[in-house]
Design a protein that fits this description.
- The structure is a homodimer of 341-residue chains.
- Chain A has 341 residues and is α/β, with parallel strands linked by helices.
- Chain A has 2 domains: 143 residues, Medium-chain alcohol dehydrogenases, catalytic domain (Quinone Oxidoreductase, Chain A, domain 1), CATH 3.90.180; 155 residues, NAD(P)-binding Rossmann-like Domain (Rossmann fold), CATH 3.40.50.720.
- Chain A is built from 11 helices and 15 strands.
- In chain A, strands 3, 4, 5, 6, 7, 14 and 15 form a 7-stranded mixed sheet that branches.
- In chain A, helix 3 crosses helix 4 and helix 3 packs across helix 9.
- At the A-B interface, helix 8 and strand 13 of A face helix 8 and strand 13 of B.
């Protein structure tokens, strides 16, 4: 990085279909100087999440869209390098919506300070403890409400959230079946993470495999993808089952209206509860999740993996890995040196 | 009716599209004679309900399909005319799945005895107190959970269930908007039943009218129809709204797979709870509903209307009134003389 220069990706146009680098503008400008009550954060890691595709779309959602010309929205971890703020001091680690940039000026709004000790690696925040893990935790336990012995199916099961959902399902005594997009991912979630079975949706017959691996039907479906997989699940859903709608990644890049599931009527006949879930609704309860997730991490009951991409410049192109499934683990951009003194 | 002869409609083939009279076989056979622990019921009223379309379809549902050659399933009210049963005596009024026939032989399984007094008219059971009213009651209050001041939208709002849902919504302090299929129905639900607004989906622009009549968005949607109306509602649905999936009448006669709502993603972005509801799950709580509904009926806070069709023979053709909306009120076939001594 250049001294005294900030680098940024700003949204230049609303993407149609897959995100293109040309939808963003690369901007280099003078480093901002913190005023009273402000501080400057050097961003170390930037989280890339499927939700990003929604944030750049001009449609009603749980957050307003990123405006054209605005620094692209993104969650990051960084270190305070200059400060005129009473609570955020030089050397503090912080996390929040720091944006796609090398440095962020902040008054502390929406940022949390992170402890320096007790976490093996700064990526643990983005890969497990800050958003991904609590999303899996509250989505599964508070909305899905799995019971011991029930069958849980997870889509995007080797993804950042899905892989944690399945592991929590195992901790809670469920039979867990994951759906993922490569043999390597399927092996990882069964052999390393302990899922009971995995289905490669790109090479296997999803409904046939679901039927084989869910002999007692499906009680909880944690959905990250929507589309055809949701439809297949609905044909095997049990009475009083719960479907957690956490993501619809299969349709985020659609350029035409996408029909809902053809087996929508199963919701009626099986008296299914289908419920949308957004992590932001649980911010005031995040400590519950972090306490359990931290404990399980230390006990070796939960693992996560990180897919690091080098350099802020790569962010726009890296995002699409989330949609073609080529990332292996939580997708994170390394923006600057993680060593903080 | 002929003496000592039973008349029946038996299912002859699985209907494709709308139900045809030729899907049933008219059978006349000797009256069955009750054995030990059995009794014979003369059926007075037969209820025709949209659910019937599902019962004759060979698809997984909340009840097994009616078998070919079997007497068509239907809920009726009747009077015991002969009995060798300790609890069901001659002259008792009964209700349950008596079937599309003039007489039913029973051992009492699944039938309930009805009080002779305190109800103005036997049709009150089929029109309000037995299934229709409790469906509206539990579907709205237990699944929809409306709060005072919220906006409730009901489809098939002049139908048997929908008209009760809207009236309960008013009792609970909601703004209630009904969607129905004729100007007469719209006038009835607003002028007579007290709905705040009505939309004629056959002549008006549903989304535009919903937007006009729901200035604060939609908090609870009690859905009897599915299809395009559900899609329109999803575009105006509030955060944390509830959708009660009680019926999908718009697609019961479909001959091709029907796509789910195109705005399924609103379930995620607005964190909506969509829940299937079947009255049968609440049989053990029916007294709660009957107590309140009976009270509201006496207080004049709830009204219902009945559309009577004369004679069992008319049943197969009358069913389709439910799908073209030509019935006005709870559709009931008068099978025999309602006067019981």
């Amino acid at each position: 990085m250049k001294a005294n220069v900030n680098q940024q990706w700003r949204l230049a146009s609303r993407p149609v279909g897959l995100i293109k680098e040309s939808d963003f503008e690369w901007r280099e400008e003078a480093l901002p100087v913190p005023g009273d009550g402000e501080f400057l954060v050097r961003i170390i890691y930037l989280s890339l999440d499927p939700a990003i595709r929604g944030w750049v779309t001009d449609a009603k959602s749980y957050m307003p869209p990123v405006a054209l010309g605005e620094v692209m929205r993104g969650i990051g971890v960084g270190v305070v390098e200059r400060s005129n703020h009473a609570k955020f001091k030089v050397g503090n680690l912080v996390q929040g919506l720091l944006g796609w940039q090398a440095y962020a000026l902040s008054d502390g709004m929406g940022l949390v300070r992170l402890p320096k000790d007790g976490v093996p690696d700064l990526t643990a925040y983005l890969g497990l403890l800050s958003m991904v893990g609590p999303t899996a935790y509250f989505g599964l336990l508070d909305v899905g409400k799995p019971k011991t012995g029930e069958t849980l199916v997870v889509s995007a099961a080797a993804g950042a959230v899905g892989s944690i959902v399945g592991q929590i399902g195992k901790i809670k005594g469920c039979r867990v079946v994951g759906i993922a997009g490569s043999d390597e991912k399927c092996r990882w979630i069964t052999e390393t993470l302990g899922f009971d079975a995995a289905i490669n949706y790109k090479t296997e017959h999803v409904r046939g495999q679901l039927k084989a691996h869910c002999p007692n039907g499906i009680d909880v479906y944690f959905d990250n993808v929507g589309g055809a997989i949701l439809d297949n699940v609905l044909t095997l859903i049990n009475v009083k089952a719960r479907i957690v709608v956490c993501g619809l990644i299969s349709q985020y890049n659609a350029e035409e209206p996408v029909p809902g599931p053809y087996h929508f009527s199963s919701i009626l006949t099986q008296r299914v509860r289908v419920q949308g879930f957004v992590f932001g609704d649980y911010l005031d309860r995040i400590k519950e999740a972090v306490a359990d997730l931290g404990k399980w991490l230390v006990q070796g009951k939960i693992q996560y993996r990180v897919h690091l991409v080098e350099g802020l410049k790569a962010a726009p192109q890296a995002v699409n890995m989330l949609f073609d499934g080529s990332n292996k683990g939580k997708l994170i951009v390394k923006v600057s040196d993680p060593n903080v003194s």
